[in-house]
Amino acid sequence: MLVILWPFFLFGIRKIQISRRTFLFSFIASLFLLLYELPIILTEGNHYLVYSYIPPEELVVNSRIYLLAVNSVQIKQEEILEEQAFRDLNSGLLIFDIKEVSNFLRYAGKSTAIFKWIGLNLDDDFQQMSVNVKTYLDSTNPSVDEFLSRSNSGGNSAGLALVLSSLIEQGKIKNDIPIGVTGAINKSGKVIEIGLIKEKVLSANNIGLPYIILPIGNLEEGNEVVKSSNLSIEVIGVRNVDDAIQRIDELNRDK
Hints:
Shape: globular
Order of helices and strands: HHEEEHEHHHHEEEHEHEH
C-alpha cells in the first residue's frame, strides 16, 4: 500500500507550503515506512511453518529427564501448499502440523531484525531463558552450559528441564523414572506457560514416556491432547520448580 501511496505523497506535498525541516522529516519518515514495507512486498507468496518431530533429549545422562523440542521450518512457495502432497513428499519426517504464517509474525520478525541493525540487541527468548536458568541455579553446569551455547536453538521452553536436570546431576534430587519436561521459568523458579503443547505431548508419547511435566497454565490443553489422541501418557501441571521437584519425589515413591 505504501508503495502505491508514496508517489502520490511526493507529488502532493510539492504543492503545499511547508518548511524545509518539515518536508525533510516527512520525506524521511515516509521513506522509512516504505523500506519497512518493501521486504514484505518483495517476498509475497504463501509462507508456512512446518512443525516436525525431534527426538526428546536426555541432556544429563541417567537423569531420566527428557527435554521436549519441536523442529520448526518456514517454507515459501508461490502456490498454495497441498498439505497431503507435502506430507507424502516428506514421509521420512513425523510432521505434527503445518500452519500458514500470518503477516503479524512476518512483521514481528522484520522488526526484530531492524532493532538489531540499529544496535538495540534485545534479548530473545533463548537468551532470556539462559539468564533465568543460570540465575536460579546460581552455579555452573557443563551439560546445561553446552545446551545454552548451541547456536541453532530457540525459544524458552527448555528452562524447567534444564534446572531439573542440573539439580539431579548435583545430587540435590533423585529420579529413576523417565519423564518428559517442558516449560519456561523466571529467575525465581516460577514455571511459565508455553506454546506447541500438542506437539510436545505427542513427542513425549512417541518414545513411550509415561509422564510429562508442564506448566499448570498448559495442563488443560495437555489433557485435551491426551484425550483426543487416546494417549496413555499422564500430564502433570506445576506452578514452580519446587512443585516439580515434589511431584518427581512422589512419582519415585509410588513406583
